[in-house]
Design a protein that fits this description.
- This protein has about 120 residues and is mostly beta strands.
- The protein has two domains: about 1-65, no CATH class; about 75-120, OB fold (Dihydrolipoamide Acetyltransferase, E2P).
- About 10% of the residues lie in helices and about 30% in strands.
- Strands 1-2-3 form a three-stranded antiparallel sheet, with no helix packed on it. A three-stranded antiparallel sheet has the order 4-5-6.
- The two termini are about 20 Å apart.
- It holds the Pfam family SH3_Tf2-1.
Length: about 120
Amino acid sequence: MSFIKKGKLAPRFIGPFEFFESVGTVAYRLALPPSLADVHNVFHVSMLRKYQPNPSYVLQWETLELRTDMGFKEIPIQILDRRIKQLRNKTITLVKVLWQYHGLEEATWEREEDMKAMYPHLF
Protein backbone atom coordinates (compact mmCIF):
# COMPACT_ATOMS: atom_id res chain seq x y z
CA MET A 1 0.00 0.00 0.00
CA SER A 2 1.51 3.28 -0.98
CA PHE A 3 1.76 6.24 1.38
CA ILE A 4 -0.54 8.30 -0.86
CA LYS A 5 -3.47 5.89 -0.47
CA LYS A 6 -3.02 5.34 3.27
CA GLY A 7 -2.46 9.00 4.07
CA LYS A 8 0.12 8.23 6.73
CA LEU A 9 3.64 6.97 7.09
CA ALA A 10 3.63 3.18 6.85
CA PRO A 11 6.52 2.11 9.12
CA ARG A 12 7.04 -1.30 7.51
CA PHE A 13 8.70 0.38 4.54
CA ILE A 14 11.39 2.03 6.62
CA GLY A 15 14.09 0.33 8.58
CA PRO A 16 15.64 -1.68 10.10
CA PHE A 17 16.14 0.14 13.39
CA GLU A 18 17.23 -0.98 16.82
CA PHE A 19 14.86 -0.76 19.75
CA PHE A 20 16.23 0.59 22.99
CA GLU A 21 13.33 0.49 25.42
CA SER A 22 10.28 -1.62 26.13
CA VAL A 23 7.14 0.43 26.76
CA GLY A 24 4.72 -1.82 28.60
CA THR A 25 4.30 -5.39 27.40
CA VAL A 26 3.30 -4.79 23.78
CA ALA A 27 5.23 -1.71 22.60
CA TYR A 28 8.83 -0.74 21.90
CA ARG A 29 10.60 2.59 21.56
CA LEU A 30 12.86 2.57 18.47
CA ALA A 31 16.12 4.43 17.94
CA LEU A 32 15.18 6.50 14.87
CA PRO A 33 17.67 8.70 12.99
CA PRO A 34 17.45 12.52 13.27
CA SER A 35 15.82 12.74 9.81
CA LEU A 36 12.76 10.96 11.28
CA ALA A 37 12.63 13.07 14.45
CA ASP A 38 9.01 14.08 13.77
CA VAL A 39 7.82 10.45 13.64
CA HIS A 40 6.48 9.00 16.89
CA ASN A 41 9.07 6.42 17.95
CA VAL A 42 6.85 3.98 19.90
CA PHE A 43 5.50 1.04 17.88
CA HIS A 44 3.24 -1.89 18.74
CA VAL A 45 4.85 -5.33 18.47
CA SER A 46 2.49 -6.31 15.65
CA MET A 47 4.13 -3.66 13.44
CA LEU A 48 7.68 -4.92 14.07
CA ARG A 49 9.54 -7.92 12.68
CA LYS A 50 12.58 -9.65 14.08
CA TYR A 51 15.68 -9.07 12.00
CA GLN A 52 17.44 -12.28 11.00
CA PRO A 53 21.15 -11.39 10.71
CA ASN A 54 23.03 -12.63 7.68
CA PRO A 55 26.74 -11.71 7.48
CA SER A 56 26.75 -11.77 3.66
CA TYR A 57 23.83 -9.34 3.39
CA VAL A 58 24.66 -5.65 3.41
CA LEU A 59 21.78 -3.30 4.19
CA GLN A 60 21.26 -0.51 1.65
CA TRP A 61 20.03 2.53 3.57
CA GLU A 62 18.15 5.05 1.45
CA THR A 63 17.09 8.33 2.96
CA LEU A 64 13.41 9.19 2.68
CA GLU A 65 12.26 12.65 1.76
CA LEU A 66 9.50 13.52 4.21
CA ARG A 67 7.47 16.68 3.83
CA THR A 68 6.69 18.94 6.77
CA ASP A 69 3.22 17.36 7.13
CA MET A 70 4.93 13.93 7.41
CA GLY A 71 3.61 12.90 4.00
CA PHE A 72 5.64 10.91 1.49
CA LYS A 73 5.59 11.30 -2.28
CA GLU A 74 5.56 7.98 -4.11
CA ILE A 75 7.29 8.15 -7.50
CA PRO A 76 6.74 5.42 -10.11
CA ILE A 77 9.85 4.25 -11.96
CA GLN A 78 8.49 2.02 -14.69
CA ILE A 79 5.60 -0.10 -15.92
CA LEU A 80 6.38 -3.80 -15.54
CA ASP A 81 3.30 -5.53 -16.94
CA ARG A 82 -0.15 -4.91 -18.37
CA ARG A 83 -3.38 -6.86 -17.76
CA ILE A 84 -7.01 -6.54 -18.85
CA LYS A 85 -9.54 -7.39 -16.16
CA GLN A 86 -12.94 -8.43 -17.47
CA LEU A 87 -15.87 -7.46 -15.25
CA ARG A 88 -19.49 -8.24 -15.92
CA ASN A 89 -20.29 -5.09 -17.91
CA LYS A 90 -16.90 -3.53 -18.66
CA THR A 91 -13.19 -4.13 -19.02
CA ILE A 92 -10.50 -2.42 -16.97
CA THR A 93 -6.89 -2.14 -18.12
CA LEU A 94 -4.39 -2.50 -15.29
CA VAL A 95 -0.64 -1.87 -15.24
CA LYS A 96 1.90 -3.21 -12.77
CA VAL A 97 3.94 -0.28 -11.44
CA LEU A 98 7.40 -0.39 -9.85
CA TRP A 99 7.74 2.38 -7.22
CA GLN A 100 10.94 4.24 -6.34
CA TYR A 101 11.80 2.97 -2.86
CA HIS A 102 10.32 -0.53 -3.28
CA GLY A 103 11.48 -3.82 -4.76
CA LEU A 104 9.85 -5.93 -7.47
CA GLU A 105 7.85 -7.91 -4.90
CA GLU A 106 6.15 -4.68 -3.75
CA ALA A 107 5.05 -3.55 -7.23
CA THR A 108 1.32 -2.75 -7.36
CA TRP A 109 -1.43 -3.08 -9.93
CA GLU A 110 -2.97 0.30 -10.79
CA ARG A 111 -5.59 1.44 -13.29
CA GLU A 112 -3.97 2.44 -16.57
CA GLU A 113 -6.14 5.54 -17.08
CA ASP A 114 -5.26 6.86 -13.61
CA MET A 115 -1.55 6.31 -14.20
CA LYS A 116 -1.72 7.98 -17.64
CA ALA A 117 -3.40 11.02 -16.09
CA MET A 118 -0.94 11.33 -13.20
CA TYR A 119 2.29 10.11 -14.86
CA PRO A 120 2.11 10.46 -18.69
CA HIS A 121 5.90 10.19 -19.02
CA LEU A 122 5.73 6.46 -18.21
CA PHE A 123 3.76 5.73 -21.37
